[in-house]
Inverse folding.
């Protein structure tokens, strides 16, 4: 059983979906967790669930696409707890459209949150972790960043960028005992996917050898492993949680 008692974590986009599942998995293992989200009410609700598990929690409204917010997020957690052991860059958005119809705002907003936001999170976290000479950074990518997807040029580009950022950061920070990894979910049942037309869902399932969708908990389990001492010799990796969609 993984034991994270005495560890502190920040999870961006932690109010719902995969982010919430990650928050609760870390807390169930004993970690104190700061829930960051642009939706403060949702963050507060998730933080209350952390507290109910017996762990310390914070709810922090943060727009991770802004460097000042990312910096303030880490500073608030440090002021409360004095250290930062785990940082999960989960916040992400979609603004889907075919490439020829995609406007500049759709492109810019997705890259700002998904890629620049991850950069901001990594940079803010590593400043603390470098002084500690220890830390775990886990970035949530996507199989779409590996295989592409029609109608998601912006999302695919942002998640491919997250993968490249992860590998570069792992090489830069490894000497300070900081492990940086990415998790690439496939077709996961979340608020983002529940409204897909049945035909689109069936098309996804034909690509999955396990012939079923995944859950937010499936992703959270891998994040928990990467955040734990069991993964101390794992860095620069992209772990696919996709039922075999990409292999």
């Amino acid at each position: 059983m993984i034991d994270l008692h005495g560890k502190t974590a920040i999870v961006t986009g932690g109010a719902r979906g995969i982010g919430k599942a990650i928050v609760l998995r870390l807390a169930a293992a004993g970690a104190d967790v700061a829930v960051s989200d642009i939706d403060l009410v949702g963050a507060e609700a998730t933080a209350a669930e952390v507290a109910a598990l017996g762990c310390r929690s914070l709810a922090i409204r943060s727009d991770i696409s802004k460097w000042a917010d990312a910096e303030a997020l880490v500073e608030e957690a440090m002021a409360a707890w004095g250290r930062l052991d785990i940082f999960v860059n989960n916040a992400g958005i979609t603004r889907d459209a075919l490439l020829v119809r995609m406007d500049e705002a759709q492109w810019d907003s997705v890259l700002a949150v998904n890629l620049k936001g991850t950069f901001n999170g990594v940079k803010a976290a590593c400043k603390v972790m470098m002084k500690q000479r220890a830390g775990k950074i886990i970035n949530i990518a996507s199989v779409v960043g590996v295989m592409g997807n029609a109608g998601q040029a912006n999302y695919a580009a942002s998640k491919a960028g997250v993968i490249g950022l992860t590998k570069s950061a792992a090489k830069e920070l490894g000497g300070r005992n900081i492990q940086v990894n990415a998790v690439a979910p496939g077709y996961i049942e979340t608020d983002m996917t529940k409204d897909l037309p049945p035909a689109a869902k069936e098309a996804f399932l034909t690509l999955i050898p396990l012939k079923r969708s995944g859950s937010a908990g499936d992703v959270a389990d891998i994040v928990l492993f990467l955040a734990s001492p069991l993964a101390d010799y794992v860095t620069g990796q992209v772990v696919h949680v996709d039922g075999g969609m990409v292999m």
Remarks:
- The radius of gyration is 17 Å.
- Helices lie at 17-28, 40-52, 67-81, 104-132, 144-147, 153-173, 198-205, 216-227.
